Each structure stands twice: as C-alpha cells, then as structure tokens.
Amino acid sequence: MLAEFFGASTLEAILLTLKLAFITSTLLLLIALPLAWFLANWQSNAKPLVMSVLALPLVLPPTVLGFYLLVAFSPQGALGQGWQSLTGSSLAFSFEGLVLGSVIYSLPFALQPLYSGFSQLDGRYLDVAKTLGFSATEAFMKIVLPLSKAPIVVALGLSFAHTIGEFGVVLMIGGNIPGETQVLSIALYEQVEALEYDSAHNLALALLIFSFVMLAALYRFNGISRSVQGR
Amino acid sequence: MQISAQLQNRIHAHISLKPQSRFIGVAGPSGAGKSTLFRALAGVEKNAKVVTPWAAQKIGIVFQQPMLFPHTDVRGNLALAQRHASANAMSIEACLRGCCCEHLIDKSIHSLSGGEAQRIAIVRALVNGPDVLLLDESLSAIDTFTRRKIYQFLNNLCVSGQLTCFVVSHDLDDLALFSDELVYIDQGRVELCGPTRDVLAQVFDKEAVMTPSSVLEGVKFASRGNASEQLTNASLSEYPMGSSIERVRVAGYEIFVSEESLSYSSQNDGDEVPVRFAVKACDVSIDTNIADFGSASTISILNALPCTISSIEPVMRSTNASDGAANQAHNNLRTAYSAKVLLKLNVIGSRQTLYARISCISLTRLNLDVGMQVIARFKLP
Q1: Is B111 within the bounds of a domain?
Q2: Which domain holds residue B247?
Q3: Do both B194 and B222 map to the same domain?
Q4: B295 and B361 share a domain?
Q5: CATH code at B154?
Q6: Same domain, yes or no, for B199 and B227?
Q7: B159-197 pLDDT tens trace
Q8: How far is B71 from chain A (nearest CA, A)?
Q9: Helix ranges restricted to H, chain B
Q10: CB neighbours (10 Å) of residue B307?
Q11: Do B39 and A127 touch (CB under 8 A)?
Q12: Model-level pTM?
C-alpha cells in the first residue's frame, strides 16, 4: 500500500532516511550524553569558544558545512584518506559518509537540550548520592539519567527529526545515489525537478505530517514532565 | 574531638568538642556559614580543607530541602540509599518508625508535604547507616510534636553510641534540649563552643533573644509514689495523669513535663533516668507568697520552683535598620518591648537557672528586686 502511494523508489528513499535518522540519533545520544555532562560541569575561559564551535551547525548555511565536509571526506582530505586506507572505500558519496555528516550537522540539536538539562539539575542530588556512597559513574547512571528523561527524549526527537529533514549537507556529501545516499528531501527535490507534482505532494504532505506529529509529541512530553517535576 | 574546616573567604572554623559529645547543636545567624561548614564536613564542598576525627567513617547529610530523588517513589529512594548501606545500618522499618512516617512508605515523592519529605530525607540518610549525620535545618518544616519525637529518636541513637549528630537549627529550644554541646557560628568562624547551657546563655545575650528558654535538668522517675515523700508538692501525684505526662524531680521538687518535651541524656533504664527539658521565659510567672508553695490549688499552673532573683534586665531588641521609616518602626518596637523585663532566677537547692519574662507593671506591683526569694510557677512544658 505504501509502495503504491509513494512509488517504489520513494519508498526506498523513505526507508534509507529512517535508517539514517535512527543510526544518527542513536550515535548522537551516545556522543552528546557524556559531552553535554562534561560541558555542564566544565569551568574554563575556553568554554564559550568550544560551545560556539559545537553550535556552529545551528547557524551555518548547510551548504557551507557540506562543502567543508566534502573536502574533508575526499580521498585527498585527511579524514577521507584515513577512511579509505582503513576500509578500502570512499567516504564521500557513501552511506557511512552520510552518517558522519549527519552526526556533525545534527550535533547541536542533541547537545543543547542535554546541556541545558544537565546545567539545570540541582547539584545537591549528586551531593546526596555521593554521601550515600555512589561513585560518579553510578550517580550518573542511577540519578542523573533518570532525572534527565525529558532532555534525553527531546534530544533524541530533535536529532531524529532534523536528520529526516536535512538537505544541503546531504546533497553536498552524499549526492543522489538511489538506495545508497538518496534521502527523502532529495527525492522530493528530484520529483519537483521532474515536474512529478502528484508524487511530490504525497511526499511533502507525509513529511509535513511527520514533522508536526513529532514536534507535538515532544512538546506534549516536555509539558507533562515539567508539570510532574514542578509539583 | 577536634574539627577544622576552611574554605577561602567563606569559612574558617576550628571546633573543639569533648570526645563523649554525640549530639552537637550548631546555631548562628543566617548567612553565617553553617550550611557551607556542613557541606565541607560532608565532603561535598569543593576546595574546602577539612580535618575531622572521622576520616574513615560514613558521613550522611540532610539538607533543608529534602532533595528526594523525584524519578522514583519513597520506597525507591530508600532502596537507593540501601545500595551502599553499612553493615550495621538500621532497617527501613525501624527508621520509618523512629521518624514517625511508616504510613508514607508507598507514597510518591510528589504527593509528600514539605514536612513529610523532610522526614523521608532523614530516614533515607539513616538507612544508609552513617556514623555521623549532619542535619542542616532538616526538620524545619515538621510540627513541634513530631519534631521532638524525631529528635528523641536521634538522641537515643546518639546516647546508645550508634550515631554522632550535628544539627543546625534556628530553634534554640530544640538545640537546648538535645545538644551535649553547642557551637555558635558567625561570619564563618566559631564564636562560641562548649557545654550547651553555657553557650546558650551567651547566645541569648548576643542575639538579644526576647523569649529565652532555660534548660532544666532533673531525674525522671518511672513508678508512682517513689521518692514522693521528698517532694513538697507531691499531693499533685494523687490526680490522674495522662499517659503522656512524666514526673521529673528538679532540685528535690516534682515537676510535670509532657513526654515529648523530655530529652534523655543516658540510656539508663532504671527507676531514675536523668532528663532535660526547656522552659520558655514567657511561660514563667512569679509568685511572692513563698508560704503558699505547695498549696496553690486555685490556679491552673502546675509546676513551682523556689528561686532567688539574680538579675533583672529590660527586654529590648537591637535592629540595624537604616532608613527613617524603619527607624520609626524600630522605635515603636522598642517602646512595646521595654514594657517587659527579663528576670534571671537561681533555683534554690541547685545551680540551675530559670528565666522569667514579666511586665514592668508586675515588677513594680510586686516590688521585685535582686536577691529576693520568690516562687517561679510555670505551665507543663
């Protein structure tokens, strides 16, 4: 039924995008959790600089970021060269390259909610945990993570949704290879270019509904957890 | 017991306590550094240099904000505290019973009131089995009756040697009742430190406390009729007493005290147990009819002690108001408060002191003067 509605090639792009979003948001959570915890507890004059670098993808035109990533991923770039010597394949225009690019591009969307959540966490919870005999790691796992459920869900949701909607970076580093790097937004762009407006309508509407439902669910969850914590 | 804690520009405290002191009260004005000192002693204040005799022992701390973990319920909080509990830690049931909150075990954290949450926070600290427990205004939202019950429970643990308690409180009566020694902190430094009664008298002077409390020590006797022949007003023993009223002998006289207002200073289970209780200056009346000591049958005040007046001072309060309106209010207060005087009374037959706050009218009407013998009458504490 879905194949009929979207068409086989679009369905392939949908599945690839979901795969990319799932892998990216999982990787981002694993990276952003310790990074945000470190940043929230780090006091240094260099902190604003580091925070600015990590937040750059928020304001940078995606094509600028995509261009630099393309240069880095190319076989002449250090990263691309290292990848090629390790795996024997090119990083640019590959799914792996797409994952790496998406992780970098969506990092601030995972990092910011976690950073604010950790910064707002009352340090006395950890003081109590310490006097109760918890190690730093145990306190993080048993106290900090459960108390940060809302920022974690928001970080996951935002990075997932943002990856689904990314266009510029993907186009620059991934190109448009069906089944390998052709994601939803590029498939839509291609349909519009080919004047296939009916398919484009279907896809655009599906993306619109998905984005709306995702954001509504996040706001709803955030509202519930805030009212529970505020009681 | 020598304790030292230093934190640049915050605290510079050296505390010297008797080795046998197990319940130590800490008082001082707001912002004096009491909480920072406790955080330093608990090892959670970064950059603080602390020297304590309990380096290898387990320290527990309970803040004024209970800081119960909101992602789980009461049972979950206590289970987390038990993960690293010491071998000799008390059971959850015993701690809940001691802190009067057995009924809260299945509640969620969000449904607890402020006082209930404070009780659970104390239980959580206790089930972890600390050797030293630091309570930083941790009972401030609990009603007086329950608070005293919990202090009694903690004091019993201290007396039996299971625990050493450091308690910050602005309620000097609580500290007076239960502390073996009292520490007064101001501007991050230890201003006064020593036996509770001595420090308390100086604190009352220092803070110009309008209604100081006196701490009386006596012996509680368990069975009726015992030693009653020594008591001048023993006739009162013939009346039915509620189960929550205890009889205490002070300087040879029988005094009636509510059970929750008593503090036990030893684990003696015999017929005669040493106890302490506090009497507020505003609850003490002066009677000049010494001949009527034991037969005051027309007034409701139960307790009486023969005393000598050792000093008479006007009751005033100092303020540091700076603007005109505040000064005006201050002057009004002065006028109002100077209508009262504070009598310091020596209890005859003992070296104990009792405070009485009476009006200037009564002072003149009764011709009271220093050295005069009077009867101090006070309600059941």
Answers
A1: yes
A2: 215-378
A3: no
A4: yes
A5: 3.40.50.300
A6: no
A7: 888 899 999 998 888 888 888 899 999 888 888 888 888
A8: 6
A9: 34-42, 74-82, 92-98, 114-127, 144-159, 172-178, 196-206, 324-337, 360-365
A10: 26
A11: yes
A12: 0.78
